[in-house]
Design a protein that fits this description.
Elements (H helix, E strand, L loop, with lengths): L5 H5 L7 H4 L12 H5 L15 E10 L2 E5 L5 E5 L5 E3 L3 E2 L9 E8 L5 E8 L1 E11 L3 E6 L2 E7 L5 E3 L17 E8 L5 E9 L2
Length: 202
């Protein structure tokens, strides 16, 4: 399978690049749900400025709750995870699930030594507008602006939303040839995504 260019793939991520889009600012008590993270919220960082309390990048080291992350601009960041840090990796999980190679978005508060004390971390999260090209028992083949995506249905996790109704586990109303929005977890260095939520086009 072809691997997607990481920059292109992550450009569709739920949180966006905060330094560019200003989508999400650090919030000590902000919502952690991936759907809420996708919402464009106002915050104190002006457009074009870098939010010091937000980090995006890729994990290059993960040891005892301390992550070393390199951003696309090659800058390095230390991210401190604690028992109070909310962690999402397809579903809410624990800090020990952060692995080398994971894509990361984190919000928190900068400490005096420059470390970001994270209150929330999203690992490998993507938000993609896709065209459904085929549907199998446990897989959906998707097209994202010409890139082929393999979407894996995860039992007990993957859900669909139809016409803004509550999410349900029944995916039978999804249709080949239709567009959809998917939130999921990228499998690093592949063109594969574990599907969390599929929003059917109205």
């Amino acid at each position: 399978m072809e691997s997607l260019d990481r920059r292109k793939f992550l450009s569709g991520a739920v949180l966006g690049t905060a330094a560019v889009t200003g989508v999400v600012g650090a919030s000590t008590l902000g919502s952690f749900a991936p759907e809420a993270a996708a919402a464009q919220r106002k915050h104190s960082v002006a457009a074009g400025e870098i939010d010091p309390n937000f980090v995006e990048g890729r994990v290059i080291s993960a040891q005892k709750g301390m992550l070393l992350v390199t951003s696309m601009d090659k800058s390095m960041h230390r991210i401190q995870l604690t028992g109070a840090t909310s962690v999402w990796k397809l579903r809410p999980t624990t800090a020990d699930q952060a692995k080398v190679g994971d894509g990361l978005y984190a919000r928190g508060v900068r400490m005096a030594d420059g470390t970001l004390a994270a209150d929330a971390v999203w690992l490998n999260i993507v938000n993609l507008t896709v065209h459904i090209t085929s549907i199998g028992k446990d897989v959906m083949h998707l097209d994202h602006h010409g890139d082929r995506i393999v979407g894996h249905v995860v039992a007990g996790t993957t859900a669909a939303v139809y016409n803004s109704t509550p999410a349900v586990s029944d995916l039978s109303l999804l249709q080949v040839g239709k567009h959809a929005q998917v939130i999921g977890a990228w499998r690093p260095d592949t063109n594969e995504v574990d599907l969390a939520t599929v929003y059917a086009a109205a």
